[in-house]
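It would be a great kindness if you could assist me with a short task in structural biology. The matter concerns a single protein, recorded as an amino acid sequence and a row of backbone structure tokens. Could you please explain, in whatever detail you think fit, how the structure tokens follow from the sequence? Thank you for your consideration; the sequence and its tokens are set out here:
___
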Amino acid sequence: MKSELEHRSDQILPFKKFLLRVLKYFLFSIVLIAFSLGIGTVGYHHYANISWVDAFYNASLILTGMGPVDPMPTDNAKLFASFYALFSGIAFLSTVAVIFAPIAHRLLHILHVKEED
């Protein structure tokens, strides 16, 4: 299986193509964030019986690591909030990694090419 990223023996990707790659990874990250927010919003609305706006607010704050706003009234709501918080930590870190992956790859590629010259 061929990787999308260039091998260390390949030339550095032209800057315009690099920007397109960064945009592609950024858009994928937006999809991950939207999916994660959707899970949280629906879950908080369903389990905690709060409005859609409050559910979105809680999901947004949990996803970014700020913490919950509304108290969870039932055990099911508390369990959902707990699992969503664990999921959110992984999702947020994964999203950051996806955003920075092409930048880190280019930097390492440049450093490796300079080392060979």
Q: What stands out?
A: The helical segments are 15-48, 52-63, 75-116. Residues 41 and 56 are 5 Å apart (CA to CA).
